[in-house]
Design brief:
Blueprint lengths: L1 H52 L3 E9 L2 E8 L5 E2 L2 E4 L2 E3 L3 E2 L3 E2 L3 E6 L7 E6 L2 E6 L1
Antiparallel strand pairs: 1-2, 2-8, 3-7, 4-5, 4-9, 6-8, 9-10
């Protein structure tokens, strides 16, 4: 009688362990499904925001020398961007030059701000801006 009682305790422990693993596995699968759907919602939202932008700029580098202060820009978006104005420390700069009047998608160009450019720079591309300090 003593031996059969020990076996029944082992069987019940193993059964409880199997039930616990099954329940936790089910909860884990439900959690993964929830995470996947949340990820899909976030991804769709960020893609919608990026699609609305179309013009995505980044500053590749800057350099100052005797001929001017240069800012290299890269358009990693999918719409072209026309350079419209340049501001240094809040004031409109009229003598800036650029290697491109319109920055095409997946292209890079430079903007020469002039030899004495220092401070906070804002470069406008229509309703998009790039801000940096030189």
């Amino acid at each position: 009688m003593h031996r059969s009682r020990g076996i029944s305790e082992v069987v019940s422990s193993v059964t409880m362990l199997a039930i616990t693993i099954t329940v936790l596995g089910g909860v884990g699968l439900i959690s993964l499904g929830s995470l996947r759907s949340a990820n899909a919602v976030l991804l769709a939202g960020s893609q919608d925001a990026a699609n609305g932008a179309g013009v995505l700029m980044t500053v590749v580098g800057t350099q100052s020398n005797s001929s001017g202060t240069y800012v290299w820009l890269f358009n990693y978006g999918w719409e072209s961007a026309r350079l419209t104005s340049v501001y240094i420390n809040g004031g409109l700069v009229s003598d800036w030059t650029s290697t491109c009047a319109t920055l095409q998608p997946k292209a890079m160009c430079d903007v020469n701000l002039g030899p004495d450019a220092q401070g906070s720079v804002t470069i406008d591309f229509g309703d998009r801006t790039v801000s940096l300090s030189v």
